[in-house]
Amino acid sequence: MAPYQVTIAYDGTEFKGFQRQRSARTVQCDLENALKKLGWAERTITSAGRTDTGVHAEGQVIAFQLEWKHSTDDLLNALNKHLPVDIRVLRVQYAEADFHPRYSACMRRYRYQVYFGGVENPLLERFYWRVWPKPNLELMNECARLFIGRHDFRVYGKPPNSRSSSFRNVQTANWDLTGDGSQALFRISADAFLYHMVRRIVNVLVRAGQGRISQNEICASLERQLELPAGIAPAKGLILEEIIYK
Question: What 3-state DSSP class applies to 136?
Fold first, then answer.
């Protein structure tokens, strides 16, 4: 029996999130079903994070124990053979005995994807949020920088439980135009995130870029926990990009 650290990607469109549910299709269920076909008999796998319904990943990390007599490359190929096409194993490596995908991580990075247009683009709708009118990207980046540092993010999300802190340390937050300027990517990295935190931040930044929320209001939301207008960016634009370990 050996411990494994596995990096996976998935299109979250057809999943009811990552975490196992009794009567719904989830990423965890499909992964555990594939492992069972390779002789896995443990109770559960562990993961770096539990993405919501409709959220995607290209750098999710899971861990499990498995009796496997072949190479890590063979394990990668065997898992992919038994997984549906919307989940893929990207990397398999042996893990340290005390490794945990969540608690061993020092930083997480998410990417959010938007495109600008007055009409839906059927080739982008699955993985992008359509935003119109087009916001001011320079202003969005000015506002994004306000989130960098250690803040109380209770306005932007919920901690894992009532006893947990809502303080998080954001290391980077910035927007970049892509292609012909009709699309933009937002990347944010932090030690950890609250539930719905990234999608609420994206919604606020888009509103700010459209002139509907001021920088002063954002500052007040972080310094005095001023409630902002309700809203959350759609799940389909969010991708768990990378989990970073020491």
Answer: coil
Question: Crossing angle for the helix pair 137-144 and 215-223, nearest 10 degrees?
Answer: 20
Burial state string for 211-246 with b = 16 or more CB within 10 A and e = fewer than 16: eebeeebbeebbeeeeebeeeebbbbbbbbbbbeee
Active-site positions read 52
- Compute the distance between CA of residue 232 and CA of residue 171 in angstroms, rounded to an integer: 22
Specify the pTM: 0.96
Q: Which residue has the tokens 């340390």?
A: 169
Helix (H, G, I), strand (E, B) or coil at 230: coil
The alpha carbon of residue 91 and the mean position of all alpha carbons in its chain are separated, in whole angstroms, by 18
Q: Are 6 and 91 in contact (CB under 8 A)?
A: yes
Model pLDDT for residues 19-36, shown as the tens digit of each residue? 999 999 999 999 999 999
Q: Which residues contact 130 (CB under 8 A, 6 or more apart)?
A: 114, 115, 116, 117, 120, 121, 124
Give the pairing type, strands 105-116 and 129-131: parallel
The model's pLDDT over 202-231, given as tens digits with 9 standing for 90+, comes to 999 999 999 999 999 999 999 999 999 889
Nearest to 190 by CA among 168, 219, 167: 168
pLDDT, one tens digit per residue, over 94-107 is 999 999 999 999 99
Domains of the chain, earliest start first? 2-94 (3.30.70.580), 106-245 (3.30.70.660)
Sign of CA dihedral 8, 11, 14, 18: positive
